[in-house]
Prior knowledge:
Layout: E1 2-9, H1 13-20, E2 33-40, E3 48-55, E4 58-70, E5 74-81, E6 86-95, E7 98-107, H2 112-145
Antiparallel strand pairs: 1-7, 2-3, 3-4, 4-5, 5-6, 6-7
Amino acid sequence: MKATATVTIDRPIGEVFSYVTDVAEMPRWVSGVSAARLVSGEMGRGARYVLDYVQGWRPSEVEIEVTEFEPPRSFGSRSSRGPFAFEGKMQLREAGSATEVTNIIEAGPDSLSTRVASWLLGPILRRSFTRRLARELEQLRDAIET
Length: 146
């Protein structure tokens, strides 16, 4: 299932890119994340970080690998361990003195039940997922602008 959301943040592109690639800040704007830490290397392509994540009532660790790192325009990642598979990409674009941020995430089902639910309820789940991404980007904007 693929979802996309966009927001404009009233900050320069370099500042926004630095913030979205600082994993320690992710709990402030990514839903379900209570902590995040870099576990190998420096931030850049091939780096890995771990999120302490709660989905519903179930806590888990999600390990992420950075797949794309092109400051200040693009940051891509994919899960390498955790309860669900996903790939994500954040694209940043200058919009005058502000920055337009687009978050694109493609997530796969984590079990047979979610596979069936995706098949039966695909459009509803996609809208819900898109709304969640939009909320997260609004939280990102609020965190950076304040």
